[in-house]
Amino acid sequence: MCRWAAYMGQSIFLEDIVSLPDHSLIRQSQGAKRCPTPVNADGFGIAWYGERAEPGLYRDVLPAWSDPNLLNLVGQVRSGLFMAHVRASTGTATSRNNCHPFAVGRWSFMHNGQFGGYDNFRRHADALIPDNLYCQRKGATDSEALFLIALAQGLDGDPKGAMQRAIGLMGDLAVAKGEAPHIRAACAMSDGQRLYALRYSSDDQAPSLYHRWSASRQGWAVVSEPLEGDQTDWKEVPPGSFCVFERDKVEITSFCPEFLQAAA
After folding, report:
1. Which of 114, 184, 186, 246 sits at a 20 to 30 Å CA gap from 170?
2. Predicted confidence band of residue 90 (pLDDT cuts 50, 70, 90)
3. Dihedral sign (CA 152, 239, 46, 158)
């Protein structure tokens, strides 16, 4: 399982989320507390929005705690909307193309979780990506496939519906191969205007996900694990939820993938 953090609000230095808090994302890469895998050392990445519609992207295969360039970048770059991820591979290679977040046009995306038996249906998952998007397929992960399938399913106009359809299609393949758990997913995505997040699992082990409003920053932090142990106002996102974060509000609705066959 991976760990990730996202932010939307007044412009802040990326280090305020990524490296400075007591339980920052970099610290979580060495000692996560709310997942079976405490060390997330298979690469990292950051996507941030600035003056252009498309996000900036920085990814590498080093453990997040060992890259001095990362510390320098997050200490210098400010953004009002960004996402960061530390990776624990569920089977695919440690390569830059397999590191999150992924970006296509103005969209960025990251995922914590897995689809059961992915190695057995990778080719079939790729077949769900249309030709006009397959050129964006750079790596080999189920996460990148999910992102591109969601784009094909209408992520631009209907983020929740597109994710329900995309996870349903991937879940159907996992069920067909008989691998459990079929689906575990905590995802974040953005079009540069809003921040979206979801939490879902086909069993009772949905990846952890929390959010917090900061009045001083006038912003939202959405994280795999709370960034400060002494802050009691972190709220857990319920399993089976889809969240839409805007500048001063959040809308949380139920999330249920659209399966063609029953997912156990």
Report:
1. 246
2. confident
3. positive
Q: Report the C-alpha gap between 204 and 124 in whole angstroms.
A: 27
Q: Is 2 a catalytic residue?
A: yes
Q: Is the pLDDT of residue 135 over 50?
A: yes
Question: What is the Cα–Cα distance from 4 to 64, expressed in whole angstroms?
Answer: 12
| CA dist 15 → 24, 27, 28, 73, 210 (Å) | 9, 12, 14, 8, 19
Measured CA to CA, the distance from residue 14 to residue 24 in angstroms comes to 11
| Boundaries of every domain in the chain | 3-254
* Of 2, 99, 187, 243, catalytic: 2
**20-29, 92-101, 153-162, 173-182: least confident range:** 173-182
Residue written as token pair 């999330």: 255
Cα 97 to chain centroid, rounded: 15
Q: What is the CATH number of domain 3-254?
A: 3.60.20.10
Q: What percent of the chain has pLDDT above 70? A: 98
Phi then psi for 180, rounded to 5 degrees? -125, 150
What is the DSSP secondary-structure string of 33-98? SSSS-----S-EEEEE--SSSSPEEEEESS-GGG-HHHHHHHHH-EEEEEEEEE---SSS---GGG
Where does residue 72 rank: exposed (0-12), middle (13-18), buried (19+ CB within 10 A)?
exposed
Sheet with 241-245: strands ordered across: 102-104, 107-115, 183-190, 195-201, 241-245, 250-254
DSSP, collapsed to helix, strand or coil, labels residue 16 as helix
Q: Does the pLDDT value for residue 127 go beyond 60?
A: yes
User: On the CB side of 244, how many CA atoms lie within 13 Å of its CA?
Assistant: 12
pLDDT at residue 263 tops 60 = no
